[in-house]
Amino acid sequence: ALAKYLPALRKVNGSDSHSGLGSAFVSAWHTAAKDAVFRQAQDDERDRVYFDPAVRQAKADGLQALGQFAYYDAIVMHGPGDDATSFGGIRATALRHARPPSQGGDETAYLSAFLDARVAAMKTEEAHSDTSRVDTEQRVFLKAGNLRLNPPLKWKVYGDPYEIDG
After folding, report:
1. DSSP characters for 5-38?
2. Could you give all domains of the chain from N- to C-terminal order, each with its CATH number?
C-alpha cells in the first residue's frame, strides 16, 4: 500500500517537504502501521542502521550503559556518517580530546568529551539546537556517576520531567 508513494518519497528524501504525499499517504501509513510484518521491518531496520552499530561501537570503546545510550541517541539524531555533525564525526571529535576506556582512558572524561562534541554538533543545526536531551538527561547521569544507568533515574528532556523508580 505504501509502494506507490516511493517516487514521491525519493523526491523529498533529505528535505522537510511532504510534496506528493498528503493525507492519502498518512492514511496508508496508519494502515501499514497496524501490520506486524511492517512493524518488524521497521524494528529490524532501526537495529541494523542505528542500535546495533551504536552499541557495538560503545562496547568496543569500553563504555557501559550510559555510553551505549549516548551513542545510540547520537546516531539516531545525527546519522551514522563520518562528517563533522554525524555520529562518526562527533566520536572523532571526542577522541581528539579524551581516550575511551578501551584505550586506557577514563570513561567519565571520555563521555564528557563526547557529549561536548555532540552539543557542538547540535548547535550547528536549528532543528537540533535544543540540547536538553544531553544537558538535562545524559549529562545528569554522567555527573551523578551513574554510568550503568542504575535506577532510580530522574531527568528532563525538552523541559518535561521523567522518572524510573528502582
Report:
1. GHHHHHHHTTSS--TTTHHHHHHHHHHHTT-HHH
2. 22-164 (1.20.141.10)
Contact 63, 55 (CB under 8 A): no
pLDDT tens by residue, 109-164: 999 999 999 999 999 998 889 999 999 999 999 999 999 999 999 999 999 999 99
Residue 29, all three cell numbers: 501509513
**Pairwise CA distance, residues 114 & 116, whole Å:** 5
**Which DSSP string corresponds to 72-114?**
HHHHHHH-S--STTSHHHHHHHHHHH---GGGT--HHHHHHHH
| Cβ-based neighbours of 86, under 8 Å, separated by 6 or more | 78, 79, 80
pTM for the model: 0.89
